[in-house]
Amino acid sequence: MKNWILRVTISLTVLFWLSGCVLGRRTVDLNVPQQGAYAGATKGTVYVGEVKDNRVFMNNPGSPSIPSIDGDVNEMSAEERLCMIGRQRNGFGKAMGDIATENNETVLDLTKDLLEEGLKRRGYAISQDPNSKLRIEATIDEFWAWFTPGAFAIKFEARVNCDVSIDGAAQSELVVVKGYGRNQGQVASDANWALAYERAFNDFLDNFASALSAKGY
Predict the structure, then answer these.
(1) Does the chain have fewer CB atoms within 10 Å around its N or its C terminus?
(2) pLDDT at res. 23
(3) What is the pLDDT averaged over residues 7-21?
């Protein structure tokens, strides 16, 4: 009997430390990877216009990959939801506190940064003129991170999915660009959440480059 109690106590302790702090709201600093050096604006200029958030939040969703908040999503303003990027969970997978961006940065800001970075890598200069011959707009369908607890490790996953509209001088195109990131860690730390997003961002940038190339941009 004593051995059973000891095993249960140890298991609960491990789950507690694996889960990390799950109460309240955690803020995570996300950064779009920068290539650093560009070959130059060899393909002209492009204007990145409106980015819309089309994510659907649910109360008590059946999957942690579906956006939710700690509380009633209907009582959170649309502006505040723009800063929500994940949900904390305890060692048993039960949903707990929110995960938000730092400094009130929004998913609109981060997605626009991703699009601009991807365009720079393709040889475009970013224009501030909305009348530019080449325009890009996007709708965010997914921008979310979640974790799945295991016996001795946590799997962190992040997904970014956008419908990107490319409006050129001769034609308009619509492409779907996705990014997925995954890593494993022993604590639900800011660094582990950020790493999942960093990998999702890199995957998004690679897929964006392939989509632009396939359309001749």
Answers:
(1) N
(2) 60
(3) 41
Residue the block writes with tokens 């990390």: 20
Torsion of CA 180, 182, 187, 189, to 10 degrees: -30
Find out whether 69 and 84 touch, Cβ atoms under 8 Å.
yes
Pull the structure tokens for residue 14: 């491990």
Q: Please state, in angstroms and rounded to a whole number, the distance separating the CA atoms of residues 198 and 179.
A: 10
d(CA 185, CA 54): 30
Type of residue found at 143: F
> Which residues neighbour 59 within 8 Å (Cβ) at sequence distance 6 or greater?
68, 72, 73, 74
149: tokens are: 């607890």
pTM beyond cutoff 0.90: no
Mean model confidence pLDDT for the chain: 87
**pLDDT for 3:** 53
Residue 17 identity (one-letter amino acid): W
| Whole-number Cα distances in Å, 38 to 34, 109, 132 | 10, 22, 21
pLDDT in tens, 185-200: 878 789 999 999 999 9
Q: How far is CA 76 from the centre of its chain?
A: 20
Residue 70 is encoded by which pair of tokens? 């700690």
Rounded distance between C-alpha atoms, residue 160 and residue 197, angstroms: 9
Which residue carries 């492009």 as its tokens?
46
